[in-house]
Every structure is written in structure tokens, then in C-alpha cells.
Specification:
two-stranded antiparallel ribbon, binds zinc ion, alpha+beta, single chain, YceD, 9 strands, seven-stranded mixed β-sheet, DUF177 domain-containing protein, elongated
């Protein structure tokens, strides 16, 4: 709550307000939010205008979230700008708008809590990522690709591929080094095909 009595009702009068408040509860969305108890910093200017008090400035707060691509938790910092009019009782704005559209001054006080919930909710992404280019999880084994590295791939092939791979492996001069090709049936797979298959699937994941 901010008391605005000191502004009077003189259009043009202004006051800087710097506050650090503790989030009384979690503020945000399912996957990313300001945690309850986190410090929310407000750098605001309160300005008396003819219809009410205009609040402008920025809100800064720590964020805690869960990456929707790799499922790791992450922290970040949120900075969001605020521009809200709080209408005077009996002002034209008060009479021509609803409380949902324009906030009200009640007993010369500004209630910032709903404003904070609104601006934070609008600013946060519905599908937060730990990093903008998070590589996500391996579609085969679920390992985090950020840890596994770009060379991570699997040799588990579709049976239809296995037959082709066997054919390719037996063709002269096409055996990649270290493939361990032998004559026991269906156990061997050509690595070049495996790599091709693997890289094809990881390319689609990145997009
Ligand atoms: Zn991630
Ligand atoms: Zn894997």
C-alpha cells in the first residue's frame, strides 16, 4: 500500500518511491514465478494527474522456474515496467470505467498487489526455457543434451533400417572403421547410417 496523501490533488505534483517488498505469496505462472518470500524491488514515480495518480516505473525480482524443454529448474531475474493509473473517487474516469479497467484510489491509498500480479503474469513466458537455445532432452534416452554433448546418439535403429544397414555394411569399401562387422545375423549396424539417422533426429529437436 502506498499513501498518496502527500501528493495532494495538484496535477503535476510528483514523488519518487523506492521500495523493497517481500512477495507475500508466489506470483506468476505454473512454470515460472517470483517465489513467496522473494524480494521485489520497486522503483516508482507517483504523479498526480487530473483524473488520479499515475504510477510509472520498474519492478525487479528474482525468478524461479522449470525449463519446459529440459525440465531442469533455473533462476533468472525479471525486470518489467509498470504504467498504471489509479483514478480518484468521483473523477470522470471513475464514473466511465469499471474497476477491472482502471484501478481506484481507495482512501488515498494505492494497492499495488493486483498491479504486480498483473504485470508479472503478462510478462512471464508460458513456456520458459533455462537458456534461449536449450538443447532439451535426447528423444531416445532422455539424457539432457547440454550434458551429453552434440555427439550423443544411439545405434538403436528401426528394423527396416537394420536390413539396409546390413546391406550397406557388406558392400565393399563402405565399412566405416571400427564397426565390428561380422557374420552373425542382424547384430551389426553400419555406423554411418546410425549417425545419419541420429543427426537427422537431433536436427528436428533443435528447431
Ligand atoms: Zn532447458
Ligand atoms: Zn540418448
Amino acid at each position: 500500500m502506498l499513501d498518496v496523501r502527500s501528493l495532494g490533488r495538484k496535477p503535476g505534483s510528483m514523488r519518487e518511491e523506492h521500495r523493497v517488498v517481500t512477495a507475500p505469496e508466489r506470483i506468476g505462472l505454473d512454470m515460472v514465478a517470483i517465489a513467496a518470500g522473494a524480494e521485489v524491488e520497486l522503483d516508482l514515480t507517483l504523479q498526480s494527474v487530473s483524473e488520479g495518480v499515475l504510477v510509472t516505473g520498474t519492478l525487479t525480482a528474482p525468478l524461479a522456474g522449470e525449463c519446459t524443454r529440459c525440465l531442469e529448474s533455473f533462476t533468472d531475474e525479471l525486470e518489467v515496467s509498470i504504467t498504471e493509473l489509479f483514478a480518484y473517487p468521483d473523477s470522470a474516469t471513475e464514473q466511465t470505467t469499471t474497476e477491472d479497467e482502471i484501478h481506484r484510489l481507495v482512501d488515498d491509498e494505492i494497492d499495488l498487489e493486483p498491479v504486480i500480479a498483473d504485470v508479472v503474469g503478462l510478462e512471464l513466458p508460458l513456456q520458459p526455457l533455462c537458456e534461449p537455445d536449450c538443447p532439451g532432452l535426447c528423444s531416445e534416452c532422455g539424457v539432457r543434451m547440454a550434458i551429453a554433448g552434440p555427439d550423443h546418439s544411439h545405434e538403436i535403429l528401426d528394423p527396416r533400417w537394420a536390413k539396409l544397414a546390413k546391406f550397406a555394411a557388406e558392400a565393399p569399401g563402405d565399412g566405416a572403421p571400427g564397426t565390428g562387422v561380422d557374420d552373425t545375423d542382424e547384430s551389426h549396424v553400419d555406423r554411418s547410417l546410425a549417425a545419419r539417422n541420429g543427426s537427422a533426429s537431433s536436427t528436428t529437436e533443435e528447431k
